[in-house]
Amino acid sequence: MIQTVLIYALPVLFAITIHEAAHGYVARHFGDNTAYMMGRVTLNPLKHVDPMGTILMPLLLYFATSGAFLFGYAKPVPVNFSALRKPKRDMIWVALAGPASNFIQALLWGIVYTLLVGFDINERFFLEMCKAGVLVNLVMAAFNLFPLPPLDGGRVLVGLLPRRQAYAFSKIEPYGFFIVMALVIFHVVGDYWLSPLISLGYVVLDLLLSPLNLLFH
Q1: Tens of each residue's pLDDT in the chain, 217 residues
Q2: CA distance 106 to 12
Q3: Phi, psi at 76, each rounded to 5°
Q4: Which residues lie closer than 8 Å to 127 by C-beta, 6 or more apart?
Q5: Contacts of 39 (CB under 8 A, 6+ apart)
Q6: Less Cβ crowding at N or C end of the chain, within 10 Å?
Q7: Which residue of the set 20, 123, 128, 173 is catalytic?
Q8: Active-site residue flag, 20
């Protein structure tokens, strides 16, 4: 169990830190300096870690369910959408930045794994860490793309909907977290959203990594 925690610790820390920093960086690019002024456009994980959501909750759930159910969260990066140059359009890019950063990280972990195997470096700990890095980032990207605010997918949907419908839909946000949790508990998110998207993610990664794989065969 301790080995599993150690294998996942670094990928999870990178996944959360870069995800949140990406939101802040893209928000700054489109005109909102809120996250930058608060020191959140940084790769320092301590700025993004929430003691309850990032450490305590995942550990408690891991031990309570023997690893069957895990959930956690970081401190959300503050974004003042009204400060963006084109709020409705730019909101979409700010929201997509987090999941996109996770997919890129999944690809990088996949590249490292392919290189280790290709050069016959069979250190199990590092191979398992690479596999964990791919999985953690695909899960994080897929989960955050669920189309319900305050998740990133919900913000993308608000940005895409016509103004009246977007305003009505955004009112769900105060209850969104509880709705998502209920859907997770009843396996709706896992079976009908996460599983298909994660499977698709692995297919895309296999395609992107196939030229590198060919070099070692």
Answers
A1: 778 878 988 998 899 999 999 999 999 999 999 999 999 999 898 889 888 777 777 777 667 666 555 666 788 899 998 999 999 999 999 999 999 999 999 999 999 999 999 999 999 999 999 999 999 999 999 999 999 999 999 999 999 999 999 999 999 999 998 998 889 888 898 899 999 999 999 999 999 999 999 998 7
A2: 11
A3: -60, 140
A4: 113, 116, 117
A5: 47
A6: C
A7: 20
A8: yes
